């Protein structure tokens, strides 16, 4: 009998550190074109902190742009654990080459399939300074693409085709917001592009 208690205690002691070491298996992020979280997870960008292990976890309050993360903390969803996503890195985040009017496909990978209100995509304004954090003042606050889901549960991956607006040159940022239907939160994903 005593041997079973010792074995049980050892297994319990081992389970706790393993559980704490594993990242949360939840939520989602843009993989293509690579978002900042995806670039960190792939090791393309270093010095990313915890986001390299949890690219799917950039969760913050929904209701953007009227509510949601504070200016300068939008790419991290207002989550200080992932503040590296808001650091402009001197305007040197790797970017995807695009042209105005181009159709671009945004692909999301999900590790939890939430009931979804919608996805919205915002683009920085002409003249955006990529050496500065993303703020509402630097974004066009009308999304260039809104994809309604009306509470439907999404599959493990989703792709959205968007026509990129014109009137931009140089380094710009796409802020994508995945709004969850049955919680007070949304997931934020920033993707750097170069016109």
Q: Gap between N and C termini, in Å?
A: 71 Å
Please count the beta strands (DSSP E, at least 2 residues each): 9
CATH architecture designation = Distorted Sandwich
Tell me the radius of gyration.
19 Å
Major beta sheet, specifics?
A: 6 strands, mixed
Q: What structural class do the secondary elements suggest?
A: alpha+beta
Order of helices and strands: HEHEEEEEEEE
CATH fold-type name: Coagulation Factor XIII, Chain A, domain 1
- Top CATH class: Mainly Beta
**Beta-strand residue percentage:** 25-35%
Shape: globular
Uncertain residue segments:
5-25
Instruction: Work out the helix count.
Output: 2
Give the SSE layout:
Layout (H helix, E strand, L loop, with lengths): L1 H20 L6 E5 L3 H7 L16 E3 L34 E2 L5 E8 L4 E9 L21 E9 L3 E7 L7 E10 L4 E10 L1
Parallel strand pairs: 3-9
Antiparallel strand pairs: 1-4, 2-9, 4-7, 5-6, 5-8, 8-9
């Amino acid at each position: 009998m005593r041997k079973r208690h010792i074995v049980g205690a050892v297994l319990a002691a081992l389970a706790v550190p393993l559980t704490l070491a594993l990242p949360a298996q939840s939520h989602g992020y843009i993989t293509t074109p690579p978002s900042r979280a995806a670039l960190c997870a792939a090791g393309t960008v270093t010095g990313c902190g915890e986001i390299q292990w949890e690219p799917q976890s950039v969760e913050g309050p929904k209701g953007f742009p009227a509510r949601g993360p504070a200016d300068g903390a939008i790419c991290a969803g207002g989550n200080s654990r992932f503040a590296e996503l808001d650091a402009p890195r001197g305007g040197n985040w790797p970017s995807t080459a695009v042209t105005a009017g181009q159709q671009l496909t945004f692909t999301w990978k999900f590790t939890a399939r939430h009931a979804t209100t919608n996805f919205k995509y915002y683009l920085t304004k002409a003249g955006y300074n990529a050496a500065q954090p993303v703020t509402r003042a630097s974004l066009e606050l009308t999304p260039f693409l809104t994809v309604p889901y009306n509470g439907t549960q999404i599959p493990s991956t989703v792709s959205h085709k968007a026509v990129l607006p014109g009137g931009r040159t140089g380094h710009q940022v796409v802020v994508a917001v995945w709004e969850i239907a049955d919680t007070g939160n949304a997931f934020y994903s920033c993707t750097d592009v170069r016109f």
